[in-house]
């Protein structure tokens, strides 16, 4: 898989370093350093700013599928960065206006005018601006085959800064107000660093080329941007609508509990996210050159490799779920099954590979917009129906059902149109291995009194058994190659 495999591995390594920092800061220290309402505040600020920022790009991120036509280093990529930045600036102005005029509706004025969200509401403005331009610079770097820089800054650097801020408030060196200022800066700094990196690499081409934008190109960019407003924002709507409904029904406290629980589950999605970042550019180039054989190969490998990686993480997390919640205050226990249901949803999403990348890079990209409409409908309906019945676990169930139906429609469409079917008997082997290893870890290892020691023993058992079976069954050539490399290195050191 070449560049895809290389950058996916690097991206995943940094993502998990970020996860380690995130677990320490968000899941271990933050629940003890902050109240559930304060945790809910940071979650709501990130949720709101992310939604505004994604809409503020006015769907232009979808135009990356046409970047192969812009690509020309001598011509400074025909003004693509300038065009994307200018469109986003207009979007920022629009959504800052919306944030101002609809403040009470966003906060939920009837019940929360005196809450922390109201007090820190205007943090949304810098968060929106810097979130938008981080997305702009990150996408620009990715289409130039650098999918790593943005991921390191978002998953690792930002979380490192946040960890420092949480440590300061945890040991009572600073007040919550000062913590919020540092937290805001932690969300701003990655954008500045990413822009600086583009300048240093002499890739920051910020000059227009209006001559390149002929009538046909303008039509294409406009069409895909309009669709991109839907497809680009839909994942964020789906990922964040649950927090809004929970906040409306139960307040910032339960939102804080849900935020912490979801963070554990998002670990399962990290290998797939690393893959999507670089696969988008590679698949777009393959469609341009008509290399359907390469598309099929990447599709098949993405499904089996992401299933193996994500299933291992789900098994390890759920087998240790009691130990995980032993770290947290008792008030967080209601989030236990959120981890399972969201985790299953992310597993399904990962196991179906790059179906979305293929659709969005093809001439059938509009159909993905229809699937996103379905996803939004199922998610919103599921949240409104299940949250009153099941509490915050209902939001997680709705998310799992939504991701299942969404990926099923994508799979069927690609199979019918492109005649590509990525699954083999090896996918079933991987699934059976994961289920078997989970039950063995639960029934062969009794729950220990010391949750730290129990976690180490249980996770070591799962890791050794799972990857040994995967290796000897030869479920994935790529993973076997990677594991053989590690084995050779260990033998050489010994």
TrEMBL record:
<keyword id="KW-0472">Membrane</keyword>
<feature type="transmembrane region" description="Helical">
    <location>
        <begin position="122"/>
        <end position="144"/>
    </location>
</feature>
<dbReference type="InterPro" id="IPR050833">
    <property type="entry name" value="Poly_Biosynth_Transport"/>
</dbReference>
<keyword id="KW-1003">Cell membrane</keyword>
<feature type="transmembrane region" description="Helical">
    <location>
        <begin position="396"/>
        <end position="415"/>
    </location>
</feature>
<feature type="transmembrane region" description="Helical">
    <location>
        <begin position="41"/>
        <end position="60"/>
    </location>
</feature>
<feature type="transmembrane region" description="Helical">
    <location>
        <begin position="81"/>
        <end position="102"/>
    </location>
</feature>
<feature type="transmembrane region" description="Helical">
    <location>
        <begin position="156"/>
        <end position="174"/>
    </location>
</feature>
<feature type="transmembrane region" description="Helical">
    <location>
        <begin position="337"/>
        <end position="358"/>
    </location>
</feature>
<feature type="transmembrane region" description="Helical">
    <location>
        <begin position="180"/>
        <end position="200"/>
    </location>
</feature>
<feature type="transmembrane region" description="Helical">
    <location>
        <begin position="221"/>
        <end position="238"/>
    </location>
</feature>
<feature type="transmembrane region" description="Helical">
    <location>
        <begin position="451"/>
        <end position="473"/>
    </location>
</feature>
<feature type="transmembrane region" description="Helical">
    <location>
        <begin position="370"/>
        <end position="390"/>
    </location>
</feature>
<keyword id="KW-1133">Transmembrane helix</keyword>
<keyword id="KW-0812">Transmembrane</keyword>
<feature type="transmembrane region" description="Helical">
    <location>
        <begin position="304"/>
        <end position="325"/>
    </location>
</feature>
<feature type="transmembrane region" description="Helical">
    <location>
        <begin position="427"/>
        <end position="445"/>
    </location>
</feature>
<feature type="transmembrane region" description="Helical">
    <location>
        <begin position="12"/>
        <end position="29"/>
    </location>
</feature>
<protein>
    <submittedName>
        <fullName>O-antigen/teichoic acid export membrane protein</fullName>
    </submittedName>
</protein>
<dbReference type="GO" id="GO:0005886">
    <property type="term" value="C:plasma membrane"/>
</dbReference>
<feature type="transmembrane region" description="Helical">
    <location>
        <begin position="258"/>
        <end position="283"/>
    </location>
</feature>
């Amino acid at each position: 898989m070449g560049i895809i495999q290389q950058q996916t591995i690097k991206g995943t390594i940094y993502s998990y370093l970020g996860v380690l920092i995130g677990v320490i800061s968000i899941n271990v220290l933050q629940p003890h350093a902050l109240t559930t309402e304060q945790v809910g505040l940071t979650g709501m600020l990130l949720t709101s700013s992310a939604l505004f920022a994604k809409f503020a790009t006015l769907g232009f991120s979808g135009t990356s599928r046409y970047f192969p036509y812009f690509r020309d280093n001598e011509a400074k990529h025909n003004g693509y960065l300038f065009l994307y930045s200018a469109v986003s600036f207009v979007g920022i102005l629009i959504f800052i206006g919306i944030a101002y005029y609809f403040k009470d509706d966003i906060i939920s004025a009837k019940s929360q005018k005196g809450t922390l969200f109201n007090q820190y509401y205007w943090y949304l403005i810098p968060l929106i601006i810097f979130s938008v331009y981080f997305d702009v610079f990150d996408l620009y770097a990715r289409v130039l085959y650098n999918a790593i820089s943005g991921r390191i800054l978002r998953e690792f650097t930002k979380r490192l800064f946040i960890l420092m801020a949480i440590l300061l408030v945890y040991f009572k060196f600073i007040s919550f107000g000062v913590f919020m200022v540092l937290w805001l800066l932690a969300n701003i700094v990655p954008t500045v660093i990413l822009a600086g990196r583009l300048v240093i690499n002499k890739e920051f081409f910020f000059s227009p080329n209006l001559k390149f934008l002929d009538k046909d190109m303008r039509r294409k960019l406009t069409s895909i941007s309009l669709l991109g407003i839907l497809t680009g924002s839909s994942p964020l709507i789906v990922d964040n609508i649950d927090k809004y409904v929970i906040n409306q029904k139960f307040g910032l406290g339960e939102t804080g509990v849900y935020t912490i629980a979801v963070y554990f589950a998002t670990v399962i999605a990290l290998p797939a996210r690393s893959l999507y970042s670089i696969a988008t550019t590679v698949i777009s180039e393959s469609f341009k050159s008509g290399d359907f054989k390469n598309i099929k190969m990447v599709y098949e490998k993405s499904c089996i490799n992401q299933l193996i990686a994500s299933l291992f993480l789900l098994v390890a997390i759920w087998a240790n779920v009691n130990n995980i919640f032993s770290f947290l205050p008792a008030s967080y226990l209601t989030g236990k099954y959120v981890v399972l249901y969201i985790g299953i949803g992310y597993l399904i999403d990962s196991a179906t590979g790059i179906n979305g990348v293929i659709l969005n890079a093809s001439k059938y990209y509009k159909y993905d917009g229809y699937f996103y409409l379905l996803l939004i409908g199922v998610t919103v309906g599921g949240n409104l129906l299940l949250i009153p019945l099941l509490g915050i676990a209902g939001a997680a169930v709705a998310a799992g059902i939504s991701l299942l139906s969404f990926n099923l429609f994508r799979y069927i469409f690609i199979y019918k149109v492109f005649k590509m079917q990525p699954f083999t008997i090896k996918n079933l082997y991987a699934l059976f291995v994961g289920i078997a290893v989970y039950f063995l870890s639960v029934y062969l290892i009794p729950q220990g009194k010391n949750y730290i020691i129990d976690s180490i023993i249980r996770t070591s058992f799962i890791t050794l058994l799972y990857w040994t079976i995967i290796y000897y069954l030869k479920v994935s050539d790529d993973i076997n190659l990677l594991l053989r490399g590690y084995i050779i290195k260990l033998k050489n050191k010994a």
